[in-house]
Amino acid sequence: MSIPREYGPILDAVRGLTWPARRRVSGVHTGAHLSRLRGRAPELSEYRLYRQGDDPRQLDWKLLARSDRAFIRLSDDRAVHPTWFVVDASASMAFPLPGHTKWRMACGLAIGLAAVAQRAGDPVGAAIVAGAGTARVRARTRADVLVELGSALGGVVPSGAAALAPALLHVPERARLVIISDLLGDEPALRRAAAGRGSTGGDVHVLHVVSRDELDPPPSLALALDPEDASIERPFDAGARAVYRERFAEWRDEVARGWRLAGATYRQVQAEHDPALEVRAVAMSAAGRG
User: Fold this and answer.
1) Do 74 and 86 fall into the same domain?
2) Which of 24, 50, 79 is the last residue of a domain?
3) 226 band by pLDDT with thresholds 50, 70 and 90
4) Where are the alpha helices (DSSP H) in the chain?
5) CA distance 175 to 204
6) SS3 of 210, please?
7) Do 171 and 134 sit in the same domain of this protein?
8) pLDDT digit string (tens) for 170-204?
């Protein structure tokens, strides 16, 4: 089994990309991210006067011989940062039809960012939440985790109303959590469930997927239907379209502000854009280059 060919351009575009953690991580296994621990890594960070209880093996004996003062060498250890994806596969992610544009973008984001994390040695896991149930990918560092993730995404058809918040119960508190969703479901509960992860060493990224037709509905649209509840429909004349655009913009601003206040990074992603460019923007922003 191999990764579906459709993801080839994304994987090629993100090759060599790094995605550093937003803050020092708490992992104990050697990896690519700055660790909260400071020890005997090869890169010297600074010297500090020896204090009772320090490890004598960190003493700089040459400096002691020259200055007759005991200093220890401090260095920045590096650790892995497990990365978990919670991907929304509710019915609204199939919009607009035909084409499932939002869902294709969500899959591209998940595969691209997972590839960057896995190549850095980070364990990668996922929960893909649809109305029919949740498909899970166990966190692993091996390259075949990308194959499993691609297979899991390919086996899901966006459907039903899916609550994402319960999926966070299975994501370690100290992991890097990436939420890929249109946030049209249980967004307030999801935000509450994700809040506070930064204080425990976690890291939350929210990728809010919207389509061009949601931002500016086409004039030909005469009736608006709820994709997750077919019984909800509303006439969509010029007046309703203007009110909708205003309220949708206000809601997006409110959601973005709420997630940032909760300590997460938030990025709105338009479904019609190139997913490889969006993956690069996420990673480079974390590296301070975006």
Assistant:
1) no
2) 79
3) low
4) 8-13, 61-67, 101-119, 144-154, 187-194, 212-215, 238-261, 275-286
5) 8
6) strand
7) yes
8) 998 888 899 999 999 899 999 999 998 876 667 89
